[in-house]
Amino acid sequence: MKGISVFGSGRMGEIFAGNVAAHPGARLVSVMNPNIASARKLTDRFGGRPVGTPEEALADPEVEAVIISTPTTTHLEYIEAAAAAGKPILCEKPLDLNLERTDRCLEVLEKHPVPFMLGFNRRFDPQISALQRAVRSGEIGTLTFLMSTSREPAPPPISYVRTSGGYFADATIHDIDLICWIAGERPVEVFATGSCMVDPEIGALGDIDTAMTVMKMPSGALAHVNNCRRNVYGFDQRLEAFGSEGMIQTANQRDDDLIRWTSQQTDAKAPLKHFFLERYEASFRQELQEFLDALTEGRPPSATAEHGRTALAIALACEESRRQGRAIKPHY
After folding, report:
1. Looking at domain 2-114, which CATH architecture does it have?
2. pTM exceeding the 0.85 threshold for the entire prediction
3. Where does the record place a coiled coil (predicted)?
4. CATH class as words, domain 123-324
């Protein structure tokens, strides 16, 4: 069993702690949070012990790997500490919100070459990973269009938006990573535009809650992403890949796939999964499995720090495009 310390005890910390505790090949050794009471809430449920500092967690010889699920602004500090201690790391996305600090993360990992995985969990969704394999195997011929729809039921609290780094770096970055991963290439230019149509407080911060992005790939393939922080029918998550020999789509998920007919309705289906934690529940479990498999097999994890830098560079180019109203070449 691999002994793991989870840094952070918020929403994502809870997901990781629960998945580690439930995994037959892992053991939750500790949960780290300067707020010990918060950490204890998770250890009371999932086992392990609460600790208040990264130094205490990393000094424990039972800790063989670290999962970082703390606020983005702390990632660099904790990556430095864990890497210097020789601990493999699974870190929630993004590495950071600016390229300079992201490059510092890469420098740290070059100096201390521990196994490192970035938490782009949607790669590990069964439908999405099957689509990626089909596209890369040539099932639909030459990729022409790649389209991603990602619409949330409601915007996050304004306190979260204030420190999120903007819509593209916070949310669209998932779609960006998937598109690059599926296509096997990264865009040479992006054009993005957006509006604030959901929450005026988001607009008052200079951010947006509704966006469309077009990316042009070196091959000529075009990718399109549409995002919105309001969707009355649930968490709408769809991908479509269109090529010279056909098309592949992923479907939204529901609690059941029954189709109902009554005197009041026809072709009726259950509502969509309502939140990303429900929609991507399987992907979080499979993400942890990939991390543990990589450690066991002695290979690099499939979602790397370099992938995180690429996705952030594109997200920042999207924001620049939105503000300038023109196509932008990402600075890789």
Report:
1. 3-Layer(aba) Sandwich (3.40)
2. yes
3. none
4. alpha beta
